[in-house]
Amino acid sequence: MASTAGNAAPQAIASSAPARATTTDTVVETERAAAALSPSAVPTLLSIVVPVYNEEGNLDALYARLLEVLDREAIPFEIVFVDDGSKDGTWKVIERLRENDSRVRALRHRRNFGKAQGLANGFAVAQGDVVITMDGDLQDDPDELPRFLAKLDEGYDLVSGWKQRRQDPLGKTAPSKVFNWTVRKASGVQLHDFNCGFKAYRKEVTENIRLYGELHRFTPVLANAEGFQVAELPVKHHPRTWGNSKYGWSRLVKGFLDLLTVVFLTNYRQRPMHLFGIPGIISIFLGVLLGVYLSIERLLLDEQIGTRPLLWLTVLLIMVGTQFFGLGLLGEFLAHDNQRDRGTNLVSVREAIGIDLSDAAINA
Fold it and tell me: Is 49 in contact with 80 (CB distance < 8 Å)?
């Protein structure tokens, strides 16, 4: 599968879905049936990264469905489970699956660190040239895997799922719509569903984006900022049949805060002076303007200005502007020196199955 990651020109956001969200199920099913895998679409090795938290009742069925689809399509694969500190029997189920199938590999976190860290660690150990991420709650349909690979084969680097017919309660869908609209406007990446965890990545993408906090929702934005081509694919979504959702209204607030982080990282990470320099220039300009006005009053009109609040405002504006410039310069130094090695570092891993932890550094 040829990668387009090296293209220097700005990358377009494409979607295989019709523009309107009212696309009928018939149209989607027709597209799905027509998406036959060509030999070039089959990766050398497909890594399926599944972060899980208290999903013991879903893993056997998920594994069976994945096995059915992947064996049918003759796709070489590995399944990487990342147990994010589950308190039930999730890890025991994973151990049993590994005993029966060496293609199952897994990491176990010391405690619950969140989905972003789970994906980051999964990316670090994934060996495939294509990486699929999906949730472990059986709401993502493994039948969609060939369609993701076919879409990547069209020349895209990241394909993001779009849950057109989302099978979730209003308490999850309503804030999600607000969040997705805001991210589209703020980032310029025209996707319908940033929250969908069902995505396909070329290995180059996972090696060039850094995930922490709650940034897993913004992988298309981060990838687009790195110059990768991003596409969207409408996918089937099933209602949860076992267990409880791990998300609520609180993630909406966290999502908006993380959006500010992403906007800063994607727009100003390599040019912090552009962020801090503009308010610095405005503040210093206003301060100097007021200073000239006060000087004219004192020198030409013999007015007393020593006790006037306008003088203190002048001094404050100049000082604040200077501080903004200082922050910008410090940011430029950090941006210049912080071209860090994006190696495969694992964070907060308690144990692993089928993975040699000595191959990667583990940070406490």
Answer: yes
